[in-house]
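[Meeting: bench + compute handoff]

Bench side (C.D.) handed over the final construct sequence. Compute side (W.E.) agreed to return the predicted structure before the next meeting so the bench team could plan truncations. Sequence as handed over:
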Amino acid sequence: MDELISTIVALVVFFGLIILIVVGISLRAKKIAKLRAEKIRLKYADQGIAQKIIDRTIWVGMTGEMLKDAYGEPLKVDQKVMKSKVREVWKYRQLTKTQYGTKITIENNVVTSWDIK
C-alpha cells in the first residue's frame, strides 16, 4: 500500500511539474508577443499599419522594413537587378531543401505579390 501511495505521489509531482513548465512557456510567449506589439506600435505612427504588422498581414505596397517587422528576416532572398527595378523574392517557411512555403516578391523595396502554400 505504501508503495502505491509513493507511486501516486511521484506521478502527481511529475505531472504538476510538467504543467508548471507548460504554463511558464505559455506566459513567456505571451510576454514576448506583447513586447513585440508595443515595439511595433511605437515605431509606426499609423496604428492601422502597426496592427497589420502585428497580425503578420501582407499587403501590396508594404515596405521591406514592414515585412521584416511582420515576418522577420527571410531564410533566403533571390535577387534580380534590371534597368529600372530590383526584384527580390523573400522566402520563408522552408519545406524542403529547395522549397519554401511562403514567397514574397518585392520590387524596389515594396511588396508586389506573394504566394503562401
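W.E. noted at the follow-up: The helical segments are 2-43, 47-54, 64-71. C.D. will use this when planning the next construct.
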